[in-house]
Amino acid sequence: MSLEEAAGASAWHGHDHAFLIPVPVPVPVPVPVPVPVPVPVPVPVPVPVPVPVPVPVPVPVVLVTPPLAHPPKALWGVLSLPLPRGAFSVVRRCVKLCTGHEYAAKIINTKKLSARDHQKLEREARICRLLKHSNIVRLHDSISEEGFHYLVFDLVTGGELFEDIVAREYYSEADASHCIQQILEAVLHCHQMGVVHRDLKPENLLLASKCKGAAVKLADFGLAIEVQGDQQAWFGFAGTPGYLSPEVLRKEAYGKPVDIWACGVILYILLVGYPPFWDEDQHKLYQQIKAGAYDFPSPEWDTVTPEAKNLINQMLTINPAKRITAHEALKHPWVCQRSTVASMMHRQETVECLKKFNARRKLKGAILTTMLATRNFSGKGGLPLAGGSISMVCLSPRFFCPQGLSVRPCVCPHASPSCLTYIPTSRPPTPTVPPGGGGSAGDSDVPSARKQEIIKITEQLIEAVNNGDFEAYAKICDPGLTSFEPEALGNLVEGMDFHRFYFENLLSKNNKPIHTTILNPHVHVIGEDAACIAYIRLTQYIDAQGRPRTSQSEETRVWHRRDGKWQNVHFHGSGAPVAPLQ
Question: Where is the signal peptide (predicted)?
Fold first, then answer.
């Protein structure tokens, strides 16, 4: 009930009360008679009762939480606990006050957005308002205030589809069919509404909740465009390298078929856990895509049904005019008759490969996000700063990248960190310094002493691990340390508690000698206050039977210098567990 309604209800109660006062006509003298009715009636006037009606919201609710200093239109409250943050916007849980339902509010600082950025923001909001489908993250409100813009979306809590798959006990071809069916349903709705997503990839495929069988939701329309019918035109180079279509790479006119090509890449990964097109050299990768050079190698593809391969072939057709449409794909027997056509065999090898695939793409996003955040903290490099966040970043393909990494040229202003996509390259790129200077000229200009400093601090950290010295380890690590490591089963771990457990229950009680060797350390210096080191770690130890053992892991650590002190902010480990658990 609104305040106006509450006030009206209150006024009506007072009016009704006046009519309830009896006036006895036969009695001429009013003094002895008025005792029975008039006195008790005024007491229960419920004036304050209607006001608290719009508070079915669980604690904690904060109506004044920066940057929401003034809740937009008094419709939304912001929960004090934020959702995971992106690199270019802040996302918070919010609640609709009149219903108590929770949503996700993406908050964009618009103070320093250019006119072009404002147009892109308006375009994204306009496109999202068009799309109302159960397999698409829905926009419920778009609110502009001075200095900020709020996009209120469905609260999607199930995480990424690909992360959920690797956690399942059972995963089959039929499950992959059900996944791609939901993705195609979302794409079909987009195309029917004249929208081309242009950035279909695993990071944008989410689950509505953590419940079993939760719906797949397509997210992130920051690169989406509007088209008329089957219009083909050059809308610019946009997307993520491994999912780009041949026509985009050739810079030809394109349209809705680019989304189907990306669906074909996604389906390929869903079935075997690795992508159809891959090369360490980005130029060679693009040549593969333009030639449609993929295959179905043994032994992993031997157990995939011919119908599944047929659908992939129709999706990954080079000629967009001959490529299958979303409507036609949904009628493919492997999709619409999966109970009889798709195999029900558990695909354990696919799950294992998918774990590695997930870990690689997460690491890439984490490193690049750290690099951009570091640039943002220092205010160097000519990047636009808007209230402590980067509003819009347009990078050359090799700008701000450590040796051997390249990034796609366009970063949408409201995307999650996963929108920042890059792939390894075999040759060190030539860094590009933006106009006005301020950017690093590359690895060669940085004294080797800096690299030795990073290697030394990494050795100190590993020594603390070997000695079971959590206090020394904690001093070297950021309290919000994020990590992917074998012990976490492919999940992203944040904070120190996970690591403390191993120190207190294993490492500190281990009295057997441990020796660690760091092989082939490669240090990439990122500006003045950040660096990334990659190396192979050999750990020698004695097992319970007294036999010498050696374990190997590949590790990458991202370091950030605060107040002259280096701290480990992220690391990624693969291979055998770092701590010998035998």
Answer: none
Residues 107 and 233 in one domain: no
Alpha helices in 528-582 (DSSP H): none
Amino acid identity of 105? A
pTM: 0.56
Domain assignment of residue 308, yes or no: yes
Q: Measured between alpha carbons, how far is 458 from 555 in angstroms, rounded to an integer?
A: 11
Give the domain extent around 127.
76-154
Q: Look up 154 and say whether it is catalytic.
A: no
Q: Is residue 426 part of a domain?
A: no
The pLDDT averaged over each successive group of 10 residues in the chain (582 residues) is 43 39 47 52 52 44 39 52 50 86 88 83 92 95 87 91 90 95 97 95 92 93 92 90 94 95 96 90 91 93 95 96 96 94 92 86 63 45 32 27 32 34 32 35 54 88 85 88 80 83 70 78 85 87 79 87 88 64 39
Concatenated DSSP letters of 87-123: SSSEEEEEEETTT--EEEEEEEE-TT--HHHHHHHHH
Q: Which residues lie closer than 8 Å to 461 by C-beta, 6 or more apart?
A: 473, 476, 477, 557, 568
CB 263, CB 180: distance < 8 Å: yes
Query: Which of 286, 314, 346 is a domain's end point?
Result: 346
Residue identified by tokens 């390298």 is 241
In a shared domain, residues 305 and 194: yes
